[in-house]
Specification:
Low-confidence stretches: none
Number of strands: 11
Order of helices and strands: HHEEEEHEEHHEEEEEHHHHH
Strand order of the largest sheet: 1-2-3-4-6-5
CATH topology of the largest domain: Aspartate Aminotransferase, domain 1
CATH class of the largest domain: Alpha Beta
Length: about 300
């Protein structure tokens, strides 16, 4: 899939007139369902709607339209998606079947609820103070064969679809981050781990002024990063086992055999939804309130998000 489109209009106009008409209908459906301040952009080479994060993507393929609402939405709407081929975060809508408008609206509204309290990173808060560093990097990156993509609210430069470098100005420093930095030799001993214990591969190079930035040194680090991709170096994410039952949820299930039996009959995905729902509450009072709310749902064999799954 091409990643050279600069806007959704460019993407849609790249198809024949009949396809353009269908994609415009889909675009209109998303725009009228999404919040008014949702932004249209191109991300991963696809039309994307962002609102406190990625709300939804779509893309046209030879025999289907791909809808990308994320894995949480796929899991929540699993029972209503049985007619379509799905993967972890994608839905394939064949071109020869009626488009499921109501289902798509429900999925978008579900994602809006998920994202409404999420605040994404504000990379541009201190941008004005670092205009010279931004311009320096824009000119430097033009000497490479990297592609610019928009991810996580900022520009990221990629090679063969893999993230290589990004940058931003913060309050006290201007930072370059190398996504495969852990594999770099770091001859100048300038790379740091920003979040010890959390960051696996990413490393930062910080500057207090543009005068500290040496073009050849930065290009050398970029080229070495590209080489790590050609060499196939990457840290693969570990599969995380579902959390064990604990706290007030475990105590309640141990004391209530009927509730425990109903809980055990739920699918693993639904059980995990309930576990996360309780554990995410910080105060015990909130956990107790949430537990009272979900007891009748569990006894009825329903999942936390089943209210979005009615056909």
């Amino acid at each position: 899939m091409s990643t050279t489109f600069s806007s959704i209009d460019d993407y849609i106009n790249s198809f024949d007139s009949e396809t353009q008409e269908e994609l415009q209908k889909l675009r209109h459906l998303i725009r009228t369902t999404a919040p008014d301040d949702a932004k249209e952009t191109i991300n991963y080479g696809m039309p994307t709607y962002r609102w406190h994060g990625n709300l939804i993507h779509f893309a046209k393929f030879k025999n289907h339209i791909g809808i990308y609402p994320g894995p949480t939405a796929i899991e929540a709407f699993r029972e209503r998606l049985t007619a379509f081929k799905t993967s972890k975060g994608a839905i394939q809508i064949p071109l020869n079947v009626p488009f499921p408008k109501d289902l798509l609206i429900d999925i978008i509204q579900f994602n809006i609820l998920l994202l409404q309290d999420k605040k994404g990173p504000q990379w541009d808060n201190h941008r004005a103070a670092w205009r010279d560093c931004e311009e320096f990097m824009n000119q430097l990156i033009a000497k490479t064969n990297l592609k610019k993509e928009f991810k996580w609210g900022t520009d990221v430069y990629t090679y063969k679809g893999k993230n290589v470098i990004g940058w931003a100005g913060f309050k006290h420093f201007f930072s370059l981050w190398f996504y495969n930095g852990v594999f770099l030799e770091d001859k100048l001993q300038v790379l740091i781990t920003a979040s010890e214990g959390k960051t696996k591969a990413l490393r930062q190079w910080r500057f207090s002024s543009c005068d500290e930035m040496n073009a050849q040194h930065i290009l050398d680090y970029i080229q070495e990063s590209i080489q790590t991709i050609d060499d196939g170096k990457e840290i693969k994410p570990k599969r995380i086992a579902p959390p064990n039952l604990e706290g007030i949820l475990k105590e309640t299930l141990d004391d209530d055999k009927a509730l425990k039996m109903a809980f055990d009959r739920l699918t693993p995905g639904k059980r995990k939804e309930y576990q996360n729902y309780i554990s995410e509450a910080k105060q015990e009072k909130t956990k107790a309130t949430r537990l009272d709310k979900i007891k009748p749902l569990i006894l009825e064999g329903k999942g936390l998000h089943d209210k979005y799954k009615h056909s």
